[in-house]
Write a structure and sequence with these properties.
The complex is a heterodimer.
Chain A lengths: L2 H13 L8 H27 L5 H8 L4 H16 L17 H22 L7 H21 L3 H10 L8
Chain B lengths: L6 H8 L6 E10 L5 E9 L10 H20 L5 E8 L11
Parallel strand pairs in B: 2-3
Antiparallel strand pairs in B: 1-2
Classes of the chains: A mainly alpha, B alpha+beta.
Chain lengths: 171, 98
């Protein structure tokens, strides 16, 4: 069982706390934990792609170099290119053909989840309902399943390299 | 500058994408970082079970998300479309007519 799967299970558990009126703290932690599940899922694949010889120490060091905002920006770029394929984008030149609906779903979910996580962790005025959190966690679960079948595609690899900061917009 | 959503574009985006959807509310909001996002609140029938997260539910909701994102792209909306799901009974009374 991976850290990503454990974190998503934990998020489900947090969202189900309190039978009638869930505490805002539980719902907020559920969103935040689901975000970290997806973040680690992507990072783990990126690190395995970059350090493929099984060196756990080196892979761990590589994992620590990823930044939340650059992962979100990479996902946003893929999502934007999928939404507007005719619009010029620096990353489009690195891609091979159209972005699949699967990859677009994973990237769109990650962008949305980062925004929700920021609200859950920092916005004291934000309010969460169980139905809203349940739907978000369910989509994350589906997106993580979809990632399993798209992670080895060429465009998914480009996404991982962009997350790692190895592909950047020209200055 | 606030992004202005054309009423004609809005009408095309918010048409219920499936029989489980009672309506969609489209609003432009800043996210926590201050970037504007198109928030699409999907009002679901109360019969859709949102009490427990599951992959089957995720698959069902992801279809709606994908369709709404396809529409916003087709209509040329430049903002990221965030999608939220609520039951009709979760909405305050003033918003139930959306």
């Amino acid at each position: 069982v991976t850290l990503a799967a454990d974190l998503l299970d934990q998020a489900f558990h947090l969202a189900s706390f309190g039978k009638t009126k869930p505490k805002q703290a539980s719902l907020r932690r559920a969103i935040s934990t689901a975000y970290y599940s997806m973040f680690h899922l992507i990072l783990d694949d990126a690190a395995r792609y970059l350090v493929s010889n099984g060196n756990v120490t080196l892979r761990g060091a590589v994992l620590r170099t990823f930044e939340h905002n650059s992962v979100k920006k990479s996902a946003d770029a893929i999502s934007r290119i999928h939404r507007s394929p005719n619009e010029k984008h620096w990353l489009a030149t690195h891609l091979n053909g159209a972005i699949s609906t699967d990859l677009a779903l994973v990237c769109g979910t990650l962008v949305d989840l980062k925004d929700q996580r920021d609200s859950a962790d920092y916005d004291v005025l934000a309010s969460f309902t169980r139905s809203n959190v349940t739907s978000t966690l369910s989509i994350v679960h589906h997106a993580e399943t979809v990632w399993g079948r798209t992670r080895h595609t060429y465009n998914a690899r480009v996404f991982l390299l962009t997350c790692a900061g190895l592909l950047r917009a020209p200055r | 500058v606030t992004y202005h959503l054309d009423p004609g574009v809005k009408a095309k985006i918010v048409a219920p994408p499936s029989k489980d959807v009672l309506g969609v509310i489209a609003e432009v909001h800043p996210n926590y970082e201050g970037d504007e996002v198109l928030v699409l609140t999907v009002i679901l029938r109360d019969e859709i079970d949102l009490s427990q997260p599951s992959e089957a539910l995720g698959k069902q909701l992801a279809k709606i998300v994908t369709e709404l994102r396809r529409r916003t792209a087709k209509e040329g909306v430049g903002l990221f479309p965030a999608v939220r799901f609520v039951h009709r009974s979760d909405l305050p009374a003033r918003r139930k007519t959306a």
